[in-house]
Amino acid sequence: MGESRRKIMRVLDGETLSPPPIWLMRQAGRYLPEYRETRAKAGSFLDLCYSPEHAVEVTLQPIRRYGFDAAILFSDILVIPDAMKRNVRFTEGHGPEMDPIDETGIDRIETDHVIDYLKPVLETVERLRRELPAETTLLGFCGAPWTVATYMIAGHGTPDQAPARLFAYKHPKAFEHLLAVLAEVSADYLVAQIDAGADAVQIFDSWAGVLGEREFEAFAVKPVARMIASIKARRPSARVIAFAKGAGFLLKDYRRKTNADAIGLDWSVPLDFAAELQKDGAVQGNLDPMRVVAGGLALQEGINDILEKLGDGPLIFNLGHGITPQADPQNVQLLVEHVRGWRR
Fold first, then answer.
1. pLDDT per position as a tens digit, 148-170
2. Residue 247 half-sphere exposure, CB side, CA atoms within 13 Å?
3. What are phi and psi of 92, to 5 degrees?
4. CA 182, 184, 188, 194 torsion: positive or negative?
5. Residue 265: φ, ψ to 5°
6. For residue 1, is pLDDT > 80?
7. 13, 30, 129, 235: which is the annotated catalytic residue?
8. CB 282 within 8 A of CB 266
9. Active site residue: 31, 151, 189, 254, which one?
10. Quick check: is 169 catalytic?
11. Closest Cα to residue 172, out of 275, 221, 103?
């Protein structure tokens, strides 16, 4: 079965399938006992990301268990700043941390060896394409420049990314340069993933929702548009999903301005608005991850609402953000069966 018949690739090209294909963000993760076992063997979280053997294994685990229509490379958005020598580390209970960057650091930032540094990740992609079922789409990914920059400025995650917003206001030229550098190197990284065997790629802008209208245009739209233009100039057949979490009404022109093939929707996006966005192409989402934790009627109602509103257009069924560690694997099985059993 060739790439052209992979269901998610067909939807990215604008087809409507019934039932729609399904995968879940963070589908390889702590809710699965087999993931926790592999994670313990690998050592640190970054060791897991940079070990092709272990990264392939955890990527394949949810495919074996649920038969999702896509496998997404197991890695992290912060491998880019790690490759830029920002001393990224993951501390249990504290999340990611790194050496914060300032104006001087931005001026001196090095990108020459980023792709070489990330060769283990690209080896994981190559192995996955060989080991995945022929019908399964392989997704690569990276973080969007704005979201990655927020961690680089603060040195850690924050509730509203105030450090990055303040830095951008006080040092606009330096921040613009940081976004430009991140856009360039991230596009190179996604092209390398495509060349290694990824069928399509997703750009995660997890912190787009903290931005005002002007800032969304400058920090979220323009860098992603630059990335997609660069990717498609080099790989014209590339397919890109852009996910600007929390962007709300600002998603109205996001597809047109970025040239994304599909846009990811978080669970706060009203389904009537989602249906309007779907008129211009594929949408992905947008079940609340807490419904997977709750199970039962809450899960069924959430699934049905999405399928009823969006099932008549190009849809990739997904969550509105990543699956949480509290999710019951049995509820994920019920979710997959419910979606797969639906017909218009």
1. 999 999 999 999 999 999 999 99
2. 29
3. -55, 125
4. positive
5. -120, 130
6. no
7. 30
8. no
9. 151
10. no
11. 103
Nearest Cα to 137, choosing from 189, 191, 67? 67
> What is the band of 4 on the pLDDT scale with cuts at 50, 70, 90?
low
DSSP state of 94: T
Over residues 167-201, the pLDDT tens digits come to 999 999 999 999 999 999 999 999 999 999 999 99
pLDDT tens digits along 290-309: 999 999 999 999 999 999 99
**Rounded Cα–Cα distance for residues 108 and 147 (Å):** 20
* Residue given tokens 């999710």 in the structure block: 327
Residue 76 bears catalytic tag: yes
In this predicted structure, the answer to whether residue 3 has a pLDDT above a threshold of 90 is: no
Bond from prior residue into 120 cis (ω within 30 degrees of 0) = no
Catalytic residue among 39, 165, 239, 291: 39
Place of tokens 């997703």: 202
Whether the model clears a pTM of 0.90, i.e. scores above it, the answer is: yes
36 counts as catalytic: no
Total residue length of the chain: 344
Q: Is 344 a catalytic residue?
A: no
User: Quick check: is 280 catalytic?
Assistant: no
Count of other CB atoms within 10 angstroms of residue 289: 20
CA angle 69, 28, 36 (to 5 degrees): 150
Which of the following is catalytic: 6, 10, 26, 239? 26
Q: Tell me: the pLDDT tens digits for 21-43?
A: 999 999 999 999 999 999 999 98
Amino acid at 56: V
Nearest-5° Cα angle at 130, 126 to 134: 125
